[in-house]
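# step 3/5: fold
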Amino acid sequence: MKKCNSLKDVRQEIDKIDDALVELIAKRSHYIHQAAKFKNSVDEVKATERVEFIKDKVRARAIELDVSPNMISELFTKMINEMVEDEIAQFRDTSGF
C-alpha cells in the first residue's frame, strides 16, 4: 500500500481502486453471462448452494483482511442478487424458456 502525503493523494488512490473494482465487477458479470449457457433451468441459474458458498468465502476473507464482514456480505449479497436476475434473463433469452 502506498504511503500518501496528502488528502489529494489518498483520494487519487481511492479513485484508482474504485475504477479497478468496477472493472472487476464488469468482468464477473461477463462470466455470469457465459455461465447461463451451461445451465438447464432457472433453479440451476439460482445456484443456491453456490451463492451460500461464495458468501461464506468472502465473509471469511473479509475477516482475514480485517474488513467488516457484514459490509462485505451485504455488498456481495446485492451484487449476486442483481447478477442472478441478469443471468436468469440471459438464460431465458438463450434457452427459449
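# step 4/5: annotate
The chain has four helices and no strands.
# step 5/5: archive (pending)
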